[in-house]
Amino acid sequence: MAVRRKPMSEINVVPYIDVMLVLLVIFMATAPLFTQGVEVDLPQAPSEPLPDDDNDPLVVSVKRDGAIFLNIGIRRDDEKGRRVTIFSLEDQATRVIGARPTVPVYVRADREIEYGEVVKVMTVLQKAGAESVGLITDPPDLSG
Questions:
Q1: How far is residue 36's CA from residue 39's CA, in Å, rounded to a whole number?
Q2: How many CB atoms lie within 10 A of CB 74?
Q3: For the domain that residue 97 is a member of, what is the CATH number?
Q4: Distance between CA 133 and CA 126 in Å, rounded?
Q5: pLDDT at site 142
Q6: pTM over 0.70
């Protein structure tokens, strides 16, 4: 005689929880690898952190090889910035500053870049209408 089984109406969710925990660990391990913007070796200097109320500041990054990148927003992870020349920087910065006159303007320059190159970028930004230009640095390493 065959035994009839009653249909099971419950779903076993344990395997789904296991998969979700593995995915969570993978995402937590890879999240620090997704850095924003252009890779720049910033100089270290004691300074105050940027205010949280800055909504999408205008950031100009200058790499060690002199390449210039224009980006609106420090905290955007999906945007690396747009590469510009020193000649087109003024035109593009003028458009951004003209549309948003109170936009904060910052320069991220590699520590190995010549001082004159940073001054050129700051001069172009001031010609474009920036009232003040801030410099972004890394905090000093006090552990050593």
A1: 8
A2: 17
A3: 3.30.420.270
A4: 8
A5: 64
A6: no
